[in-house]
């Protein structure tokens, strides 16, 4: 039997974005006959919310080994909060013990806790095991080096993280059996950085659509809570997910359009949830200053603290209009696009022209797309187009959006299709047919 060792520091009941790909693929791995073990953190102080209902989606046959990590109560004195660094020595030891006794066929790192990934090269050197790296975000991020970018946050912590990423990325990826990336742009960046990189080293694999999660949500409505106020006559437009500084140009277009509709017969209100990855005690609003500049602070409601994954799916079902927002990082491929389209609510997507997100919406349909040209002020043409869409919604008319191509979504982007492609890669690197 083929054996797969997955390194995913975040795992249910912790709800964090970077474990969703693994979680949704596990049932399909097991169904295909693979024996799976997950190495994860036994974090007693997780920054992400706990969501015990997600444990129901993990097959019983999957062995989950939870390794200790240093407590933040002690590491905070050294400015060390990152989960990867806090668990690294324990993860290394647990991995060696498991490799010696269980002997996996391939090791799969699927996480944004990048500092755990160099263990793949160390384990390969000692035990000859192939490892596959999954880049859900860019490991080395050049956003803050671009002209006009804001200063990076975090001071010395950012500089340390950036330096370690530039030191470890190439060293780790060079000996990997394969690299999976959610965006072709991230693979293009690797080709520019490393002369040894060749196209056959990597594959683009989007996030999977959470079909089974919607089924769980409908079967367990008690597992979620309503986030939107009921009984209001306003047009409620909702978004759940990160709002970073790279997304401010998108907010400029959105807020400028909402400001133009301020005197409409039906008010427009925007609701943002889980916009910061920081803990609830440290989370800060991203859109407040922008909303104030456009004179709509009273119409924008932002809850920066993370919310439950199933709560976010219910939000998509309950809202009048759903939002998908793009980033200045044109390679940005948000995982939320597929659940948003699957929810079947009227949807508006706002993204830079030529971005991965814009291409995905054009491919699948299901949303009214507004693209903008990145520039110092909001793109007037994009603002006018979005204002027109808002007026459609205010008047109760359907959004002018192409229908969702469900057949294409199922074939290319369902959780089952993504898992099938993952298994093809694993089988290829261990030299057998799946």
TrEMBL record:
Chain ranges of the Glycosyltransferase subfamily 4-like N-terminal domain: 22-194
Superkingdom of the source species: Bacteria
Gene Ontology molecular function terms on file: glycosyltransferase activity
SUPFAM superfamilies: UDP-Glycosyltransferase/glycogen phosphorylase
Pfam families reported for this sequence: Glyco_trans_4_4
Protein's UniProt name: Glycosyltransferase subfamily 4-like N-terminal domain-containing protein
Species per Swiss-Prot/TrEMBL record: Oleiharenicola lentus
